[in-house]
Design a protein that fits this description.
The complex is a heterodimer of chains A (about 475) and B (about 210).
Chain A lengths: L7 H9 L2 H23 L4 H17 L1 H14 L3 E5 L2 H14 L4 E4 L3 H5 L2 H7 L3 E4 L2 H9 L15 H11 L11 H18 L2 E4 L3 E3 L4 E6 L3 H7 L3 E7 L3 E2 L2 H16 L6 E5 L13 E7 L22 H4 L4 H4 L10 H12 L1 H4 L1 H4 L6 H5 L6 H14 L5 H14 L2 H18 L1 E2 L5 E3 L6 H5 L4 E2 L6 H6 L4
Parallel strand pairs in A: 1-10, 2-3, 2-4, 4-7, 5-8, 7-10
Antiparallel strand pairs in A: 5-6, 6-9, 11-12, 12-13
Chain B lengths: L1 H11 L16 H18 L3 E5 L5 H11 L5 E5 L3 H4 L8 E3 L9 E4 L3 E3 L4 E5 L8 H4 L2 E6 L4 E2 L2 H9 L8 E5 L4 E2 L7 E2 L6 E7 L7
């Protein structure tokens, strides 16, 4: 059974049983929140900067048509061409058409979630083009025929042993010893990809931002691969979502200050590159053709709705890195290109709620995602909206609906509520066991509790309900 | 009141003459530069770049030669985006300067830049007639020379500088804050993923002669 055939609970169970993935996620839980906090603490006024970032994204979205036209005007003035694609199929046709017209055979790419979303690689390969991903993580999963498990670290689910074995299988070279050391793997991948870079006919990148003021497509990487993809081939194509546009360079500066700090806990990524059109007359080098494909694919349908706020997202992945659900099961369990809280909000909008009804449910609504979001997207509210839609649309499981009806009845009958809750609290207290660090914890429960306690435990109730304690408080 | 005014001005007297026209006092450029250089160095070093300062353009050649000697990288360098201090390197006896595109991996590139931003610790490279964007990514070692007037305080100052350029802006403008690196092979990050393994910045300034 492949992940695509499984449902969300089955994929989650599979993820919980993968030791390599679990080790990576454990590392993420331990490191990423501390790195992000330390990086943001270096800013003089993080709260004000975040508010300014939210405003600049909202402003661009409120005037999206204006800024996209402004961006297009600048790109055309610099000698580039802007294409508009309503759907994934239209976008893929445009890119494939450009490659075919250029007589291209070899395409190189830098990491782009939009091209994952529209499945551009499959579309190009179906037309006989060779496509090579150049971001190291994307390259590794491309060799393995897998999908990204994190929007920034696509090979997060793999350990060094698996990566070494993958390189041994795909890189033709004489070996005296197995490939086990990360430094050697990097040298090998660098050499393999250098040859691919030099031979490519077309380079495809995404864009982290588009700047209407100057017509810039902004590429942010630590590896520098996007810069080579943009510089070396004779044609550069940018494929990106319509929501990526910002009004001015000043807006860009605000968002750049937050992006890398939120994403990886550093003040800026190694490379931030602004691309304006093709090479100029007299330039030493650079592509002769420059194209931008603006992809809608469900985005414009969110404009003017209560879900428009998700379009502020700058794909920093802070919400994934801080999510108790994502950091337990990783990205593949979500079964979609975008995972974690932002993915659970975005995917139902793109793929329909009927197919993705489990994703908004895969959240404890603890609120950390909203707290750490650099553009203050109210992710818990948006997740709850999808849940309400699912309930209204009859998409939830019958057992879930029955449980909610029972809860509703209890919650509206205070006497029964107090009686039932008091009984449950006492029963849970009786079933708890002393914990090594002091206090008591619940380790097992019969019936439906078995699934919950298979992979976690809970602190035991103190013995009395909140209401009982409130009534007996000192005046 | 008028009596008091007259009496006081009679005492103040000769201090009441208007001043001769003169420029208002400004912060010395050396102090401003030194503060920016300190901030730049802290930020760029955090991004795994190395930074040295030299007082005038004449110090750039020896500084590069010393760096290459220390890292055992040979004496051969390729020049790109030649600002005044970079162009002057052709006369440095301890360096062997090459023109033309950066060849195979392992090369050392010495380039000028469009600007550097102290608050972020980045150097800013712009493609054009004398600089191919890929040069800074194909080289294994990139040495960037930042002249005194190019060291800006913030990203906002950089945007102002870009706005002052004729439209359209250069094809590829890169803000570089250190060597190429990747975390895709686990933690800690490894340097030299696609681009340079080493980024070394030489800040020229601090003395009026640099202007």
């Amino acid at each position: 059974m492949t992940p695509a055939d499984m449902d969300f609970p089955a994929r989650s169970r599979a993820a919980l049983a993968q030791p390599t993935l679990q080790r990576s996620l454990q590392g993420m839980r331990r490191m990423m929140p501390a790195l992000r906090s330390a990086a943001l603490a270096g800013l003089p006024d993080h709260a004000a900067l975040r508010e300014r970032a939210r405003e600049s994204r909202d402003h661009a979205l409120e005037h999206l048509g204006h800024y996209l036209l402004e961006y297009e005007r600048r790109v055309v003035a610099a000698g580039g061409v802007v294409h508009w694609a309503r759907t994934a199929a239209e976008a893929n046709d445009i890119v494939a058409g450009l490659c075919e017209r250029a007589g291209a055979r070899r395409v190189i790419k830098s990491k782009s979630m939009v091209t994952e979303e529209i499945r551009l690689n499959e579309a190009l390969e179906a037309r006989g083009l060779g496509v090579t991903e150049t971001d190291l993580g994307e390259y590794i999963i491309q060799l393995r025929g897998e999908r990204p498990s994190h929007i920034l670290a696509p090979a997060l689910h793999l350990g060094l042993a698996e990566i070494g074995a993958t390189f041994e299988r795909h890189h033709r070279r004489e070996r005296r010893a197995p490939l086990t050391e990360a430094g050697e793997m990097l040298v090998e991948a660098r050499a393999e990809l250098r040859a691919v870079f030099q031979a490519a006919d077309v380079g495809i990148t995404g864009a982290n931002f588009l700047v209407a003021e100057t017509g810039a497509a902004v590429l942010v990487t630590n590896e520098g691969n996007a810069d080579l993809v943009a510089a070396l081939p004779a044609m550069h194509i940018v494929v990106t979502g319509i929501e990526k546009v910002v009004a001015t360079l000043d807006d860009l500066g605000v968002l750049l200050r937050l992006l890398a700090r939120s994403a990886i806990g550093e003040s800026l990524s190694s490379y931030t590159t602004l691309v304006h059109g093709p090479r100029r007359a007299g330039d030493a080098a650079g592509p002769r053709e420059f194209h931008v494909v603006l992809v809608d694919n469900g985005r414009s349908a969110l404009l003017g709705t209560s879900r428009q706020e998700i379009l502020r997202c700058i794909r920093c992945s802070a919400c994934l890195n801080h999510c108790p659900v994502y950091t337990a099961i990783g990205g593949h369990a979500y079964g979609s290109v975008y995972s974690g809280p932002m993915g659970a909000v975005l995917t139902p909008a793109f793929e329909g709620l009927a197919r993705t009804v489990d994703l908004p449910a895969a959240s404890t609504l603890c609120g950390r995602c909203e707290e750490v979001c650099p553009v203050a997207i109210p992710l818990p509210r948006l997740l709850r909206e999808w849940r309400e839609d699912a309930l209204r649309g009859g998409l939830t499981r019958p057992a879930e609906r029955r449980a909610l009806r029972l809860w509703q009845w209890l919650a509206t009958h205070p006497v029964w509520y107090r009686f039932a809750l008091g009984a449950v609290v006492r029963a849970l207290r009786l079933m708890s066991v002393p914990a090594p660090g002091g206090g008591r914890r619940l380790r097992h429960l019969p019936w439906f509790g078995q699934g919950w306690f298979a992979v976690r435990d809970l602190p035991a109730p103190q013995g009395r309900t909140f209401q009982a304690q409130w009534r007996s408080r000192e005046p | 009141m008028n009596t008091a005014r007259t009496a006081m001005l009679a005492v103040i007297g000769r201090h009441g003459a208007p001043p001769a026209p003169a420029a208002p006092p400004v912060m010395s450029t050396e102090i401003v530069w030194a503060e920016r250089a300190r901030l730049f160095t802290a930020q760029a070093t955090a991004g795994a770049a190395t930074v040295v300062t030299v007082p005038t353009g004449a110090g750039v050649g020896p500084a590069i030669a010393d760096y290459l000697d220390g890292a055992r990288l040979g004496a051969e360098v390729h020049l790109s985006a030649p600002t005044r201090a970079v162009a002057g390197l052709a006369l440095e006896p301890r360096l062997s300067c090459r023109a033309g595109p950066v060849p195979a991996d392992g090369a050392t590139l010495v380039s000028g830049c469009l600007a550097a931003v102290a608050a972020e610790g980045v150097v800013v490279l712009a493609s054009g007639a004398t600089h191919a964007a890929q040069a800074a990514f194909l080289a294994a070692t990139h040495i960037v020379v930042v002249e005194a007037g190019q060291l800006l305080e913030s990203l906002e100052a950089l945007w102002q500088r870009l706005r002052a350029l004729p439209a359209p802006l250069p094809r590829q403008i890169s803000l570089v804050c250190g060597p190429s690196r990747t975390a895709d092979l686990g933690v800690p990050s490894r340097l030299g993923a696609h681009g340079p393994l080493r980024v070394h910045v030489i800040l020229v300034g601090g003395r009026p002669a640099a202007r």
